[in-house]
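Support reply, case 0932

Customer input (verbatim):
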Amino acid sequence: MPLINIHNLNESRAWGLWNIQEELSALEKTYVFASHEKEYLASISHPHKKQEWLASRLTVGLVCEHLQLPYAGTQKMPDKRPYLCEQNGHVSISHSHAYAAAIIDKNKPVGIDIERIDTKILAIRKKFLFEEEFSEDVRHMTQYWCIKETGYKLAGEKGLSLKDDIIVDPFSSGLASGSTNIHIGDLSYKIEFFEHDNYILAFNTN
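Our regenerated output:
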């Protein structure tokens, strides 16, 4: 099982990262489905999207186990956010190509995002950054993207603008890891980020 690690942030919060190497059939045999989840998985048409969904839910289950929380599956509510079926904590999930990640907190909202470092980010950066925030450093732009997506998941509000509503304190380019603060309305969050295997992972720590 290629779960890379589960990391404690404090006694009530932990996150996990999974490297997706298994065949779809192996993931299906490993995961214990809640009653509604098989139907949802069947509605996903692309095999790799199914793999991402299963790997991310397996990660959620293992992080729950690590935090000594029962796990009975996840469900999406009308706001499109994932929820633990037993409503015994807050969860955020992300997946990108070869990786799936999940973070859980027993008491507070959480956000996590993982993105592959790719030059395509330079073509879409105007959607989430102001021109004065631009750089030609692909990793730097991916870090911004990942941090903003983490904030979007934290806020849980439909219709937020990544560019206008989620403000990131500037941080230097050239960093393989670091932290910054984001501001969403009157709320501020500390976000940690780091590079792993040509991916950027970001999550909130408060």
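We compared this against your earlier run and they match. Two observations from our side: The longest strand covers residues 187-196. Residues 47-66 form the longest helix (20 residues). Please reopen the case if you see a mismatch on your end.
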